[in-house]
Hints:
By secondary structure, this protein is mainly alpha-helical.
Amino acid sequence: MTRVGAYAPVLPLPAVVALLALPVGPGGEGGAGPADAVSALVVLYCAIRLLRDRKRPLSATAALVLGLPVLGVTVAAAGALSPGDGLVGFGRYLQVFVLVPLAVLLLLRDRDDFRLLAWSFVGLAVWQGAVGVHQYATATGASYQGRPVRAVGTFGAQDVMGMATVVSLGLVCAVGLALGSAPVRHRLTALACALLLLPPLAVSFSRGAWIATAVTCLVQLLLSGLRRALSAAAVVVAASVVLVGGFGVGTAMLQERVSSITQVTDAPDQSVTDRYTMWAAAKGMWGEHPLTGVGLKGFPEHRDGHSSLALSAGSDTEGAGAAYRKQPLLSPHNMYLLVLAEQGLIGLLAMTGSWLALLLCAVRALWRTRRTAGPGLDCGLVALGLLVWQLTDFAYADIGGPSTVLTAMCFGLAAWWGLSDRTGLASTGPAVAAPDARHSAQEAPAR
Length: 447
């Protein structure tokens, strides 16, 4: 079998990632895109394979951890303002937090498949980052402080977080791959990619992405061992000095954006004021409906009734091929508060309970790998890094836009790392997860 043929069963997953390289039409609303449609086909493809092979691929633990969000989402869908809103919201949450992660968990067969998907994240990030740096250098990006310099990649001005998310996740994957035990040339390639992704992340002007990426990379460095952590930190510091001092990446706007992170109470800008106001609105909705929330898709309808006059009419967006428009603020830009407002305590406990259980399983699997000096440390660092990034970024953002499908795949990669040993995926037969000729008999377990 050719090398491409060996990867054939898992190729639909990198295909979903690759579709995010396609440009979003100017003026697009930033909703579901081609990658979301293909992710639905991947779920269908996975279901057909399971039915064909008549296997029971999931343990009770895996089914409980990944199925727990369904409880809160179902209750909130029943309480939505309209059946249409409930159905759309139910499908979106099911896609992001249940179905696509399950498909990733079941389609990945071994560490090589995992690395292929991780490298696809890196490749997408390099492409989007290159487009973003070009936008910044040529002043063809989205508007920022009256100048068209904000790097948004192919996602357009209506989804300014899209490129920042893609680049951040690619950087996290590259750092995890560089800190693993793969051949030196692979680790050096991953390190080079991580350094290349620093400039586009900087010129995305996304404070939330900066914070989440910094926290995640610090966690990865600490988990990889003290020696590697110190070596990698030295490389990052040296690269930062070169970028800032040698190439002038630290422009006045960038420095002002960095300093604004600490000005959330003294002199916040309008975006911070809007965010605080919407957070307060979300808490107000929860206060009125503490158990079940206001229902899926209910935040926009209840926002004005719980907001102060400090909330602006919307954010101004233009540039990157799109005309000026006022983009309405339809979410609190905090996933935890969005779930609390729309799904209440039932939904929040179910959702965060699933995430916390997945995090604990991933940490336990990484600890076991390090203790036994087993292979796959890079996979563990990537999986845990992606999960930590998402859970940190959820404090500043929520789901929405084409890049959301990557969130679903991040949870799937974390589930494969943390739960695959409990699902018997290494011994369920060739259709689901049997190791192929790329691994010896000693490497047959999932990691």
